Amino acid sequence: MPELPEVEVVRRGLVSWVRGRTITAVEVLDPRSLRRHALGPEDFKGNLQGTTVVDVVRRGKFLWMPLNETLGAAGAPPVALMAHLGMSGQLLMQDNDVPDEKHLKVRLRLSPVDGMPEQLRFVDQRIFGGLFVTGMVPTDDGGPGGQSESPVALIAEEASHIARDPLDPAFSFDLFYSRMRKRKTGLKRAMLDQGLVSGIGNIYADEALWAATAGGARALRRDDVGTLRVGARGDAVILGAASYAHLVYRPGVPLIAATWVGGRRLHG
């Protein structure tokens, strides 16, 4: 299961390849990967073809691409293509002459740009992930929907119920602290509550607690919560970079992430 840092690294790599490009064609090879799109493959294709990817946004482990309705009616509500990676889902940029992957599920053809692959492929061996089109709604705090290159106060509807994550520039320490104080439960369980703070799974909860030397504590001072937040954010960035440092794009080799080490972008 991809953790928060892996999903963020995928977002950073993907946005440089797809932002501003038009989806010219959609091919669904396995409709099981569209099971979250209730109206089926034809509606899925009709919602995507002719639209332009505006950005790639992430909150917690939710990842979506807001779409500009270039062929839609004026005043149409904003929509986004949402990707759920599940346990084995991948978003791969590929050239047209690269053979299909064994577990290729959905292919999006993008408007040509010199030096860039023309296909975005969704590959998923275990089929726990998927793609679907969703509406966008205003954020409840008026801030950006999530981590993005062009922040707007809209969020994919399916992600609107979760709190901000520790990597989000709009993450509020004061709000996090006040909500944490109200929890009458174990600290780790509170950290796994997506309504309190999103994107922290079992592994990173343990690592952040270890870094904050909090163990299984139930009561925290304000300074302790600050340390805990730094632990969560720091571990995520470092471990995310380490997990994907070897992934780069070369002709014939899929790109699934940018390479970031020590805060410096090396490739992608």
Gyration radius, to the nearest Å?
19 Å
CATH superfamily of the largest domain: MutM-like, N-terminal
**CATH class (first level) name of the largest domain:** Alpha Beta
Roughly how much helix do the residues carry, as a percent range?
25-40%
Can you tell me the overall shape?
A: globular
Number of domains: 2
Short account of what is shown:
By secondary structure, this protein is of the alpha+beta class.
Describe this structure in words.
This protein has 268 residues and is α+β, with helices and mostly antiparallel strands. It has 2 domains: 4-161 and 247-259, MutM-like, N-terminal (N-terminal domain of MutM-like DNA repair proteins, Alpha-Beta Barrel); 173-241, Helicase, Ruva Protein, domain 3, CATH 1.10.8. It is built from 6 helices and 12 strands. Strand 7 and strand 8 (119-124) form a beta hairpin. Helix 1 crosses helix 6 (222-244) and helix 5 packs across helix 6 (222-244). The chain is globular, with a radius of gyration of 19 Å.
